[in-house]
């Protein structure tokens, strides 16, 4: 889910404190915003899930994806990479009949393909987390303008993943993933959660191989 906003784009949350304005689009966004979006993630399964769901979100609303997230988890074995990598054309046909998820053949096949590519990446890099976090922009670099949908880092990661055979990992999808998994803090300047994310990031040690 990609969120771009001007520096003043906030609205009062349920507690009256300012939140990123996009939370107002759906009631369920507040919990996702306050507890997940932008907080650093080092767990490979969660990283694979986040990147997969960002791929499914392409061309759709994040509300649609968030509402179906538990169904996606059930359909893709909790995003366990080894289990997803073993899925076959029979599984694809079954999921194309599953109204609980987004029934898009290309995106379903991409998740299975990407699970196979992810296992190759883990064998090479030690973990998905080690791979992604080694691309982290220099913390001393100023945050990008909050109207961007890509960054030099997202373009570089996208290019490398595509070279490795991943699908549905364009620069915009990768940037949304970077926002979601905490590689960049794109909470609005006045958002009460921005400082919480910054504190969590300071306490977080990026995994290395």
From TrEMBL:
Species lineage: Bacteria, Pseudomonadati, Pseudomonadota, Betaproteobacteria, Burkholderiales
Gene3D superfamilies in the record: Hypothetical protein, domain 2
GO BP annotations, alphabetical order: base-excision repair
UniProt KW Metal-binding keyword: yes
Entry keyword annotation includes Hydrolase: yes
EC numbers for this chain: 3.2.2.20
Designated name of the protein: DNA-3-methyladenine glycosylase 1
GO terms of molecular function: DNA-3-methyladenine glycosylase activity; metal ion binding
Stored InterPro entries: Adenine_glyco, DNA-3mA_glycosylase, DNA_glycosylase
Enzyme superclass (EC): hydrolase
Binding positions for Zn(2+) per the UniProt entry: 20, 33, 187, 191
Keywords carried by this UniProt record: Glycosidase, Hydrolase, Metal-binding, Zinc
